[in-house]
Design brief:
The protein is built from six helices and no strands. By secondary structure, it is mostly helical. Helix content is 84%, strand content 0%.
Length: 188
């Protein structure tokens, strides 16, 4: 069971890495079974608890950073697991948002080691990275919506041309032609 989960995680991670490198969004179909999903949640919880326990050996800001990193890993892992289970665009976008938010939280905690203007600059840099990532996500969503609208416009234009061609036919040929045109245009 863990082998299948690991293979799915590697596949999803590779798709996400590729999509981030290409600046596009990739949607992977949901292939995880419910038992694998539940097992994945349990594994994440177990890992979280053991890593939090390891943080207890640290002190000061190092301990705080460790806690933030462990929380971040858990949130990202849960978001990736959810996407692996559902395969929805919403959950894919959620991964990007969670990564941006958790990276900001960790970076902000790391800034606590500094003081004065250096700390202020550090926090602003961390916020800028988060803002850029969320802006890229929003841009990707808008681009995806625009692409979907454009595809719908193209299908509609193709349908109108096909329907016009069907007008020259009569009887069963016309009916068959219109049925084919509707099917190709996604109209049922």
């Amino acid at each position: 069971m863990n082998t299948r989960l690991n293979r799915l995680n590697r596949t999803a991670a590779a798709a996400l890495l590729l999509s981030s490198l290409l600046g596009t969004q990739v949607v992977v179909a949901a292939t995880m079974s419910r038992p694998d999903y539940v097992s994945g949640k349990q594994n994440i919880s177990t890992t979280y608890k053991s890593e939090m326990a390891a943080c207890k050996a640290m002190s000061g800001n190092a301990r705080d950073i460790c806690h933030e990193e462990v929380k971040a890993k858990e949130k990202v892992a849960l978001a990736e697991l959810e996407f692996g289970y559902t395969g929805t665009r919403k959950d894919q976008d959620r991964i990007v948002a969670v990564k941006a938010d958790t990276a900001y939280a960790v970076a902000k905690e790391r800034c606590d080691d500094q003081a004065g203007n250096a700390k202020s600059v550090c926090v602003k840099q961390a916020k800028a990275v988060q803002t850029k990532a969320l802006a890229d996500l929003k841009l990707g969503q808008k681009t995806g919506a625009a692409r979907a609208d454009a595809m719908e416009d193209k299908r509609e234009a193709d349908y109108k041309v096909a329907a016009q061609k069907c007008e020259t036919l009569a009887g069963d040929a016309k009916t068959s032609c219109m049925a084919t045109a509707k099917m190709q245009a996604g109209k049922t």
